Amino acid sequence: QMLTHGALCSRSLRVFSKHTYRDGGCFFMKRMMMHKASSSDDDASLEERVFAQTFVSDDDDVRLFACAKTLSARDFANLIARHNHTALGRKMKNEPKLRNMGKAKSSFNIALSALVENGRFEEVEKMFSIWREEFPRVDVDVVSVSLVASALRQTREDIADVERFVFEQKSRHLIKRPNKKVARKKINANKYERDGLLPMGVVYEDEDVIAVCKTSGIPSTSDPSTPSVSDFLMSMKKDDPSFSLSEMNGADARGVVHRLDKLTSGVMLLAKNDVTHCELVSAFYRRKTKKVYNAIASGIFEDDEGEIDFPVDNREAYSKYAVLERLERGESSFVEVMPRTGRKHQIRVHLSSIGHPLVNDALYTPKKIRKSDENSTVVKPKSSSFYLHARSLELPHPSDASKMLKLEAPLSASFLAEIDRLR
């Protein structure tokens, strides 16, 4: 289950099973020592430590959430300025791009998120105003705009006020130039049906969102070789004049609020308008989502379930897995994976870290395992691509947070056939 700020509060006291994997050291003792040390810190030293980091850990994120119940927007801004002094002041003409602005931006987004979680929506607006007036060198991004838009929806009676804010910020800061390498051509549906990329089924649709079952081989955003999910959707809906997708990410990624690898299949959610896009980005950033994946991993797992605590791109990353079936003929396992964080390639990295990379994952399969597979006489998969499928996605509906939106995409016939071959 994806962790929200509230759920994170109990995570440092959680006792992991004996099957938890970690990146060296005694994980439980380390956590307990961190918790004990933090209890003796006063709030000031905690805040100083949080904003001095390049990346804020989940444990410190929990404590920052508690601090945000009393800290004001000005308090947060002062702390960020203390550790990002080069971010202050206006950028001079022809001034080279400054380093470490990403750290300042991340600090602002974390503080905005903590204020949103505490329901201090007016402080969110104040903090964004301070950001734009006193830290103009730090560019806003779609996450910061989305967090402020979420707050505005709680304080503004007229949705037009929120739409106006989002449009202004998008026009000033978020418009991206189209990728010139991507040729805009009319999509030949027959060709892609022959290639197995279409049809791409719609699993849910209303006036705010549309969810599809992405086929393996379709990129989430446009690339030079293949049209993207949004390109295919716009082609499929060309006869519906009312259909549109948000453009917060530009023309190359219309509607896209989260991404799947090109070779990963499964449920993918897209926003139809910019305000909905912001609500969804805010939900993903604040970990209001629950995601479940199915995969075929190399080797026979000894344990039926476990948790993986292994950094991805030098950032904390957590996943939970359960073995659904051991595929003896193929010396592989059919597993269910529930990522708690959302790092790039997280599931692929995590399964590889415990010695069970995805079958046919050339990028994350160690050479030793690849060589042993080449010399093995076990049944091998028919396809040259890996098998990873986003089975379900659950999150609050962007127009009504009290309503949970649960989206499911069944396994494809080829995926099921591969499982049957490897049994």
Descriptive report:
It is a single chain. This protein is of the alpha+beta class and 423 residues long. The chain is 39% helix and 17% strand. It contains 15 helices and 10 strands. It has helices at 5-8, 27-40, 43-52, 58-67, 73-83, 101-117, 121-134, 142-155, 159-174, 189-194, 229-236, 274-285, 346-353, 367-375, 413-422, and strands at residues 21-22, 202-205, 209-214, 265-271, 290-298, 305-309, 318-327, 332-339, 388-397, 400-408. Strands 1, 2, 3, 4, 5, 6, 7, 8, 9 and 10 form a 10-stranded mixed β-sheet that branches. The relative contact order is 0.10. Residues 1-18 and 24-41 have low confidence and may be disordered.
**What global shape is seen?**
globular
Query: What structural class is derived from the secondary structure elements?
Result: alpha+beta
Cα gyration radius (Å): 23 Å
Mean pLDDT across all amino acids: 83
Q: Approximately what portion of the residues adopt beta-strand conformation? A: 15-25%
Count of helical stretches: 15
Number of strands: 10
Biggest pleated-sheet summary: 10 strands, mixed
Percent in helix: 25-40%
Low confidence ranges: 1-18, 24-41
Tell me the distance between the termini: 29 Å
List keywords for this structure.
single chain; 15 helices; 10 strands; disordered N terminus
